[in-house]
Amino acid sequence: MRTAGSMSDTSAATPAAGGGEDITPCLECDVLVVGSGAGGLSAAVAAAHFGMRVVVAEKADVFGGTTACSGGWLWVPNAPQALAAGKGEGLERPRSYLRHILGNHYDEAMIDGYLHAAPRMVEFFERNTAVQFNPGSGVPDFHGNVPGAATGWRSVVAVPYDGRELGPLISRLRQPIPETTFLGMGIASGADMRMFLTATRSVKAFGYVTRRVLKHLYDLAVHGRSLQLVNGNALVARLLRSAADKGVSLWPGASVCELVCDEGRIGGAIVETREGRREVRARRGVVLATGGFPHDPRRLHDMLPHVRAGTLHYSAASDGNSGDGLRLAESVGGQVSHAQAHAVAYAPVSLVPRPDGSLGRFPHLVERGKPGIIAVNAGGKRFVDEGGPYHDYVREMIAATPEGQPAVSWLICDHRFLRRYGLGAVKPAPVPFNRWLANGYLISGATIGELARRCGIDVAGLDTTVSAFNRHAELGEDPEFHRGTTPYQRVQGDPDHRPNPCLAPITHGPFYAVKVVPGSLGTFAGIRTNGRSRVLDARGEPIPGLYAVGNDMNSIMGGHYPSGGITLGPAMTYGFIAAETIAEGGAAEGERDGRKENAV
Predict the structure, then answer these.
(1) CA distance linking residue 32 with residue 252, whole number of Å
(2) pTM of the shown model
(3) 288: which strand partners?
(4) What gap in Å lies between CA 369 and CA 484, rounded to an integer?
(5) What is the largest CA-CA distance in the chain?
(6) How far apart are CA 65 and CA 174, in angstroms?
(7) Which pLDDT tens digit goes with each residue over 109-149?
(8) Using alpha carbons only, what angle is made at residue 456 by residues 453 and 459, rounded to the nearest 5 degrees?
(9) CB–CB of 259/328 below 8 Å?
(10) Of 336, 344, 285, which Cα lies nearest the Cα of 529?
């Protein structure tokens, strides 16, 4: 495998269409991947393993996209880890579960293709790369009352990684969202997070956390960042290590501004680099993996009714994900689907003031399920099972908002809850929280009524809601929304709390609130492709040489969110499939796989 410096340069310089600017002599490779999240890096690593020369063009100065800031889970029924533990289940149960959740958006060909290919993808990466996974033995599907739902063993997550293994590439790894870390140190879901949440109540947990923090402080002092990589950060680090090992050329600060079409086939792209515009000739294919459109105001307005109604949308996805891949595909005849049930993967978000005056976006994925918290709207009324799936929280928040009013809610808790579990960016004890009161992120009140007035919530409405909630919570009951009745809800709760791990009264003042607005973790609507990741034109035919993966590819889940990992699982699987297809010669330019019935 030759590196970028040894790839052949042609002498001809081609001006960008309509631009007239000089373009440096073009570089030739086999595959150009646009974007460096899980989908793009998976395609790049697999293509390089299959013997192709690969360039990854990432417009940010760091690699990893939204994946690097994510939980890092992949939904993969019948993964090798499950089979090795005797937890294989065949295909009918996951099929049944998805049929019930996706309804009319269930695409049998795409779902079956995914369920067959995803375990094979996991096996490929574990056998041939630095990517290794742990099983999610206790990670349940979101909707436990639906036929076919599982209580565990359908998910995998990257094994934590020592950042030192990346060498100089560590400086190019995107760091997690700072508000979701402790002084920049990522905390893994499951046992790791439980240790941090119980550090003031358990000698064992205190010792574990102390060791983790001391090691982190050493890394900060010596290396300037955390080297204990977990979650999506570990996944990207492992993919980057694999890419480097296989000779993939990694270009940071390289934005693709135009696709090059040769006699009806996509043959490369014009790339804006630090040294100027450069033509990259990709003999065998271009893979679009730019992360969807969570920061594209025009497309968000077109696809999200609440945005058209006047409520702003705040995504926790990488700021660079602004729809580049979708626009590139459309420029050569690709089609963006508008048929999803929901165009984005919703998540409740709070806006966090930062010292530089900017606003961070904290995705509320964890603390909502703990005992002693509720969510209310401006009328002071609950509108959702607070500990349920994050996608459902925002969907119900929007639905509960009267016409003409902004969609907004507040998470309400008491002092005991705040110090035990934290609230949004506010960390639990013993971390101080006065600065959050000072900058207005955290609102407090000596009484529920005072808290309501400071938030602008209807006082009588909130008082009535909290009183009713407390009466039932004392008994571990929630007759209104049934919190704690599914495996997912109970996993999100506190196993040490009885009788219901998800419910406790809100009685220990002072009381606190954080304002929550509609947000997302990424987008569902994307470029229409077939089961081989090939971009389709208006007739449903493959565009030769063009592929889409990750959130650039239209989600196979139809705009629904059945379980954690339904974004990264397909991202890596279809990245792998794209590389396989290219290695096979485009599957005879995809004619056998270009059938309209096998498209999303």
Answers:
(1) 13
(2) 0.93
(3) 34, 548
(4) 9
(5) 78
(6) 7
(7) 999 999 999 999 999 999 999 999 999 999 999 999 999 99
(8) 50
(9) yes
(10) 336
